Every structure is written in C-alpha cells, then in structure tokens.
Amino acid sequence: MKPGGGNRKGKQFERDLAALLHPIFPFARRGAQSRTGLDAGDLIGTPGYRFEAKVGRKPNARAALAQAIAEKGSDEVAVAVCKQDGEQPIATLLLSDLLALIRKTGPAPQPPLPFEEGPVPEEVDEP
C-alpha cells in the first residue's frame, strides 16, 4: 500500500457510508477529525446515532464499537460499521440497543399464513 493509502481509504469509506445514509439522514457527512476523535464522530448529521467507520484488511469491530460507545452522547446509539477489504460492510451495535430499536419500530408485518385450497376436513369424534 502507498504511504497514506489507508488514511485515504478510510476517508473514502466514511464518505461512502454517509452517502448510503443520505436517504435516512439527508445531512450525513464526514465529521471533522482530530487526533483524539472527540471533536466529531466519523459521521455527523446522524442525530441519535454515533457512527464509527473502519475499513481495511481486518478491521476490529469490537474495538470500533468500544470507541463509538466511549464517544457517544447519552441519547445516542453507538454503531460500528466495518468493511474488510473485498467484503460487504457489517454494522455492530449492542444487543440492548438493537432490541430498543426493534421495540421502537415494531416487528415487520407478517405475511398471511399459507392456505391450502380444497375441502375442509370433517371433525372426527373420538370414542
């Protein structure tokens, strides 16, 4: 890899992630980064969520989530989005946060149960 290539790849991944989130968060964009990371998250304009984005040969999702948790506000959900080279990105969050999101949004609508066409079976009286 060329010098600075990993840094460039990380910045591009953050921009790509912001673009993916635009339909939900129209103001999502890369945050202003500092050495401590405390100035802004990897993404800003995502109210209620603190995103930590990692990309590379073997990004550490647990460490990324720990960083997001350490830097999030009390009203934010920490989400680590990691992309291993050549693979699809994954999102990691605490199970308690996932359950809270599911409770908030509700379950997906259930399709109707399959119905078999034909005669209805007669009830049989057992002796």
What labels describe this entry?
18% strand, two-stranded antiparallel ribbon, alpha+beta, 127 residues, elongated, single chain, 5 strands, Trna Endonuclease, Chain: A, domain 1, 3-stranded mixed sheet
List the topology elements.
Elements: H1 5-21, E1 29-30, E2 43-44, E3 49-56, H2 61-71, E4 77-84, E5 90-92, H3 95-105
Summary of the model, kept short:
The chain has 127 residues and is an alpha+beta fold.
Walk me through the structure:
With 127 residues, this protein is α+β, with helices and mostly antiparallel strands. The protein has one domain: Trna Endonuclease, Chain: A, domain 1. It has three helices and five strands; from the N terminus they run H-E-E-E-H-E-E-H. The longest helix is centred in the first third of the chain and has 17 residues. It is elongated.
